[in-house]
Design brief:
Blueprint: H1 2-26, H2 33-40, H3 44-50, H4 54-67, H5 82-97, H6 100-111, H7 118-144, H8 153-173, H9 182-199
Helix pairs in contact: 1-2, 1-4, 1-6, 2-3, 4-7, 5-8, 5-9, 7-8, 8-9
Length: about 200
């Protein structure tokens, strides 16, 4: 039974990896279920046994990519330093946001939203909305453990995530000639986190 499950999970990952690559390189319209099956080295029937349709597969590929950065996978204790946790979170979020796949999916939603209006909704649900909800839980933990005063965790989560983007994301998104160095990013994040903590201090 364990082998059957692991084999099934392995096939699912093969399909998701192939779909993510094709979506990001060719776009949504040009990526067919046949092409995904071929690149995943599985039958089309196997693809459909795991994912009912292309929209479902598109959403799952976004979720898998977000999950791969493990953004909120750390425990908050009464001795945890919010600044340290928030810096880890900010770096993971920015790395995900500026990844090749995330940038490509963002452009797909912008370019193909007229012919496939559901794409933006799928992206928002599995990407920004889910991440915001997870970060809001972290903010609520800081509040419950009386480390920060955050009566509105979701507001704080949105503020923090948007603050994290900074100039780095804008320059990567628009592919400007000048890009922000790692040292500049680190300095910006530490400064932003200090301001965020000051704003929500007890």
């Amino acid at each position: 039974m364990v082998n059957v499950r692991s084999k099934s999970e392995s096939k699912r990952k093969q399909i998701l990896d192939a779909a993510t690559m094709l979506f990001t390189e060719q776009g949504y319209s040009a990526t067919s279920m046949d092409l995904i099956a071929k690149n995943a080295n599985v039958s089309k029937q196997t693809v459909y046994s795991h994912f009912g349709n292309k929209d479902e597969l598109f959403a799952a590929s976004i979720k898998q990519k977000c999950d791969s950065y493990h953004m909120t996978e750390f425990s908050v204790t009464s001795t945890s330093e919010p600044a340290e946790i928030l810096l880890i979170l900010a770096k993971r979020f920015l790395a995900m946001l500026t990844s090749k796949e995330a940038l490509a999916i963002h452009k797909i939603c912008a370019y193909e939203s007229k012919s496939h209006p559901q794409l933006s909704e799928l992206f928002y649900q599995e990407g920004p909305e889910r991440i915001t909800d997870e970060v809001a839980k972290l903010m609520a933990e800081f509040h419950d453990k009386q480390q920060l005063n955050i009566p509105e965790p979701k507001f704080a989560a949105l503020q923090f995530l948007n603050l994290t983007k900074g100039e780095c994301w804008m320059r990567v998104e628009f592919n400007t000639k000048k890009q922000i160095s790692e040292a500049e990013v680190d300095s910006y994040l530490q400064s932003s986190i200090a301001m965020f903590i000051k704003g929500y201090s007890l």
